[in-house]
Design a protein that fits this description.
Structural class: alpha+beta
Radius of gyration: 14 Å
Largest sheet: 3 strands, antiparallel
Distance between the termini: 36 Å
Shape: globular
Oligomer: single chain
Helix content: 40-55%
Number of strands: 3
Number of helices: 6
Length: 112
Amino acid sequence: MEATIEGTAALMKLLGDKTRLAMVALFAEEECCVCELVEIFSMSQPAVSQHLRKLRDAGLVQERRNKHWNFYSLNREHPMFPVVDALLAHVPDQNERLNQLKAARLRISCCD
């Protein structure tokens, strides 16, 4: 994806999905494990993985493996990151979702 009208349109289409937009907003705060995303979005692991695959294929997120677990973070080196960053300035803060996981002691529980 590059800074062309086509690339920008593809980015907007990708982030036009509310789940993927919320995921990117979460990743802007800190990296998350797939198991955490399953809890946050009340979705099955395969459904979460489909969203992550689209974001990863576009290069917007980075994947880091730790034993059996995959962690995802925002790729700040992506050529379209300035567009994503500007968009995220208008997206409601997602920290409350992470705080709820911490309060429920589900934050990175799969990786302990």
